[in-house]
């Protein structure tokens, strides 16, 4: 098979650099060396995935506790990785990555929950976990679950890792007011596609990371003429932006105009976005809940 430059592939999803590539890409991309990714897991509450191994590099997305990653290189405090759940490639802080085992047993269903050094709400907290974060609970002590890192979380804020919220529009509604954050995909900060990805993944639906990827992969297309008869859960796409319908008239989306997750009439959003930012709607898609 003829080798191609890795630049010909989507760099967001291709673990390849001129000096290093995933061994599975041997014969497909040019690289000085090929290595097999080492399965690991995120052990920090969240971690920024950057496009370059520098603290001032832009954030493309975030990994959260429990996410599986394949690690190709660790150097100077950064790990070159590919996230398993959506295939995104980039650089994570090495300290945010831990062993792949034990696998997660529980998932956070509250918007946020605190990590404590003991099963005692009066103890100074060590941090927090956000909606969707997953962890291995070693045992339950009263109302608390003990994590491998000797931290404790309030058990009623969590569910089995198999828990799903099939109404992904309801998940999005819970996040109204969350600040807009480019690359964000946690309940502390979200961008437009991060909101959609988090809501759909908690419904058990695999979802790509970025709006253009989601537009190609999710659901089935609807004619643009159906703009007046949309349903709850339908997705509305612009070039570089996505929102989720709550009903036939209201759109929820993380956006830079409100700098937050906000609900507004679709007609208002369409007029503003056409005039000031992403232009006209490019497609409508209907996603079927699990």
Automatic annotation (TrEMBL):
SUPFAM superfamilies, alphabetized: Cysteine proteinases (SSF54001)
Q: Does the keyword Acetylation apply?
A: no
Task: Please tell me whether the keyword Hydrolase is annotated for this protein.
Answer: yes
Domain NlpC/P60 as annotated: residue spans: 161-288
Q: Where is the signal peptide?
A: none
Q: Cite the GO molecular-function annotations of the record.
A: cysteine-type peptidase activity
Print the keywords alphabetically.
Answer: Hydrolase, Protease, Thiol protease
The record ties this protein, via PROSITE patterns, to:
NLPC_P60
Q: Which GO terms describe its biological process?
A: proteolysis
Describe the family membership recorded for this protein in Swiss-Prot or TrEMBL. Belongs to the peptidase C40 family.
Name recorded for this polypeptide? Peptidase P60
């Amino acid at each position: 098979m003829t080798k191609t430059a890795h630049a010909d592939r989507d760099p967001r999803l291709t673990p390849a650099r001129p000096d290093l590539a995933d061994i599975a890409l041997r014969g497909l991309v040019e690289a000085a060396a090929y290595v097999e990714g080492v399965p690991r897991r995120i052990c920090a509450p969240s971690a920024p995935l950057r496009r370059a191994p520098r603290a001032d590099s832009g954030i493309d997305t975030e990994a959260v506790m429990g996410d599986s990653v394949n690690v190709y290189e660790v150097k100077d405090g950064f790990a070159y990785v590919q996230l398993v759940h959506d295939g995104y490639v980039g650089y994570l802080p090495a300290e945010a990555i831990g062993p792949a085992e034990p696998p997660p047993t529980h998932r956070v269903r509250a918007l946020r929950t605190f990590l404590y050094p003991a099963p005692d709400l009066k103890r100074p907290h060590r941090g927090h976990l956000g909606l969707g974060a997953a962890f291995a609970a070693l045992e339950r002590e009263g109302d608390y679950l003990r994590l491998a890192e000797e931290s404790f979380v309030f058990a009623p804020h969590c569910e089995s890792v198999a828990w799903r919220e099939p109404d992904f529009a309801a998940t999005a509604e819970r996040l109204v007011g969350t600040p807009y954050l480019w690359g964000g995909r946690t309940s502390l900060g979200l961008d437009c596609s991060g909101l959609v990805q988090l809501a759909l993944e908690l419904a058990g639906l695999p979802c790509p990371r970025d709006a253009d990827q989601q537009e190609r992969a999710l659901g089935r297309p609807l004619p643009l003429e159906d703009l007046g008869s949309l349903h709850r859960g339908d997705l509305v796409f612009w070039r570089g932006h996505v929102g989720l319908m709550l009903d036939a008239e209201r759109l929820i989306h993380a956006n830079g105009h409100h700098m937050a997750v906000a609900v507004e009439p679709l007609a208002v959003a369409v007029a503003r976005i056409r005039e000031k930012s992403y232009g006209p709607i490019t497609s409508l898609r209907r996603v079927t809940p699990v």
